[in-house]
Amino acid sequence: MKLSKKIIRYYTFSSLLFFLLGSIAIYFVLKSLIAEEVDETLRSEKKRIVKQLQNKNHSIPDWATINLEIRNTPSIATPAETLKDTIIYVKETNETIPLRQLRFYTQIQNHAYQITLRRSLIEKDDLVTGAFGIMIGIFVVTLLIINAVNIWSEKKLWGPFYATLKRLQEFRLESKRPLNLPQTPVDEFSRLNRTLNRMAEKLRADYRNLKQFSENAAHEMQTPLAIIRSKLDVLIQDSSFSEEQAQTIHSLYQAVNRLARLNRSLNLLTKIENREFDEKQPVDFCALIKSQTDNLRELIEIKQLTVGFRCEQPFVQTINPFMAETLISNLLLNAIKHNVRQGHIEILITTNSFVIENSGPPLQSDAQAMFERFKKDRPASDSPGLGLSIVQSICHQNGLKITYSYQNKKHRIRIER
């Protein structure tokens, strides 16, 4: 979720909470103020009514209206006045009216009276309802203003941030174009850009140094390995050595070959992860797999394997041709190497995927761990354990998904978009 949307959400929740608490407080405050105002009006009316009654020279008969009720009483039973809210039903209009009522007792010219004064609360309730409606309106308008301000600020104030984010997403260490984030009017974004520029230059320098070191190390290792291999070739052809010495020389020769393969694999894996194979073009994997299978025909015949090839529909992927050849070569070599004598390999190609199956015993280790570097199913194997790591890196960089499964005594690797 975007930061601006989170801010709007926090503003909305806090404003809603503030509005609810404020509305409740204002409602009771208004009710209290209105009740005090009505009570003062009733007490003023009480004084006026009592004064008018005192000016009468005779007994006052009982009479009652909605707002005023006078009753003769034998005596003043309850001298204290009472104030309360009440409701009166009006037959003429068939409705009930909320009223504020003041009831008191007084004695005038040896006569006791119970006098009740009432004032309607309808207009006062309308005032409270109106105030509440105004608050709702203010709340809605406030939310609209907050959202409008956030939308404007996201486009105007956060523009440099999104520009920086876009440049960072497009930034590549192997690219020659520097990051060069511009200065912005916003101090925080300007400081962020300066920090990122320095960090990018430091990363680029470290990357160049590491790349140069890796290339130099790989190059320097090839020369002594080639010399050692040539010397061993000469020693192997010398018949003056004993059988034990010849076996030792043969073991050294195998170790040198293994070290040479490891050097090539590490060098290739480094180049793949450094994205040095950027030139891409559409590659038909039907033709590529068939061609690679023909190139490995000698190894297939040595193990007496049966190869089933079925291309239902062309699988065409935009990829670097060398990476595509490396991908298929590693998968086929893996299917041959981990197969059984007189086993079989099945290849199925469709529009969005291709599958390579081979017979063979189950793995002795975790299947997912086979994609890790230097991970081998059998430690005694002379393989460097980088084949599937290279395959996974190629798939990851080209938007392909690789999955492995073992069913019915068959290893199955599926590559799909």
Structure description:
With 417 residues, the protein is an alpha+beta fold. The protein folds into three domains: 150 residues, no CATH class; 105 residues; 136 residues, 2-Layer Sandwich (Heat Shock Protein 90), CATH 3.30.565.10. The protein is built from nine helices and twelve strands. A five-stranded antiparallel beta sheet has the order 1-2-5-4-3. A hairpin with a 3-residue loop joins strand 9 and strand 10. Helix 1 packs antiparallel against helix 2 and helix 6 packs across helix 8. The radius of gyration is 47 Å and the shape is elongated. The model has no long low-confidence stretch (mean pLDDT 78).
What's the overall geometry? elongated
The number of domains is: 3
> Which residues sit in consecutive blocks of at least 5 with pLDDT less than 50?
none
Number of distinct helices? 9
- As a whole number of angstroms, the C-alpha radius of gyration is 47 Å
Give the overall pLDDT as a whole number. Answer: 78
The description of the largest β-sheet is: 5 strands, antiparallel
Strands of the largest sheet, in order across it?
1-2-5-4-3
Q: Tell me the β content.
A: 15-25%
Q: Helicity range of the residues?
A: 40-55%
Structural category is alpha+beta
List how many beta strands DSSP finds: 12
Task: Give the topology string: H per helix, E per strand.
Answer: HEEEEEHHHHEHHEEHEEHEE
Distance between the termini: 28 Å
